[in-house]
């Protein structure tokens, strides 16, 4: 097969999937691109949401399948978590069960936040309520289900700063974009 034929096959494969990807992107994000600040908030939020979503998913899977790490890496997940639970004041397997429940709820909340970011891209003002609500609920569940000591000692500075940055970006976006729309509407009404 010649180089030209290989190139043609690659182009045909690319052309086969490109229209479907474009249709899917337009279905999810719409045809119109938002302003620059909205794009910055969206992509930053997408990155942070992905990190938290993937982390919660991996953690949940490991908590559900602790024997996998024990067999392959000789790491006793149950013993480590049980020990940390006793240090935090939990009894028996309570901490393990709460941690498992927390990560499952985290997966659901980060999916909701991701949907909120899709609506943010589509310029829906109420998307900020979904995103900020998800962030506050995630932090609250962590604090009340696992304890304030867990939040202070076991949550990394990166996690705390990421949540704060995400919260502030969306809050600023909500007020800046919301006020800009109000000013534009008032200007149109005056004319």
Provide an overview of this structure:
Helices cover 86% and strands 0% of the residues. With 191 residues, the protein is mainly α. The mean pLDDT is 85.
- Uncertain runs: none
Number of helices in the DSSP assignment: 8
Structural class computed from helices and strand pairing: mainly alpha
Mean pLDDT: 85
Give me the strand/helix succession: HHHHHHHH
Largest beta-sheet characterization: none
Keywords:
191 residues; mainly alpha; 2 domains; 8 helices; 0% strand; membrane; transmembrane helix; transmembrane
Brief rundown of the structure:
It contains eight helices and no strands. By secondary structure, it is mostly helical. The chain starts with a helix and ends with a helix.
Helix-strand layout with pairing:
Blueprint: H1 3-29, H2 36-64, H3 66-73, H4 77-87, H5 94-121, H6 127-146, H7 148-154, H8 157-190
Helix pairs in contact: 2-5, 2-8, 5-6, 6-7, 6-8
